[in-house]
Amino acid sequence: MGKTSLSSAAAVAQAQKGLNTLLVTTDPASNLGDVFGQPVGLEPQPVEAVNGLFVQAIDSKASLAAYKERALAPLRVLFPETIVHAADEKMSGPCTEEVATFDQFIACLRNPAYDWVVFDTAPLRLLELPESWTVHISDSARAVGKPVWGLLTHSRLLNRTEFSLRNPQQAPYLPSGLPHNRTI
What we know:
By secondary structure, the chain is an alpha/beta fold. The chain contains seven helices and four strands, in the order αβαββαααβαα. The model is unreliable at 172-184 (pLDDT under 50).
């Protein structure tokens, strides 16, 4: 049985218990739409055949565009376009795309509208990001010589998310040794 079949079955089981459940895929080739016979998009969509079940696809390119816009919007007010353009260029690498995708992952995980969040084929790299990004934030703060408020705030969120993912009381279905949250 495949990952999509298992995650879909687990999500349906939670929804049938009366729990609002979000089933999220980060796989660009996901076939959740085929499983439920309906489109799966960037925003949570109710599954017509299962009350309390919602599906969503995290798109890394769309996540990157939204992340960059949130980061660049305040700069546009303060700096000339050449500086904003340079910042935009620096944010165009794969690392920023991973961070932006992980931000979407966190948003799904922490969405208070759902009792359960089930991830279909979340890449292990996403689950390792909080630790590596926290190291990057610490290194950046040391290079500047002082804490950078925005980076520290982001670091705290990453640390809380990593703790949640590794907490077996919140994610009882993940095998021992894997990160935990009330996710599957």
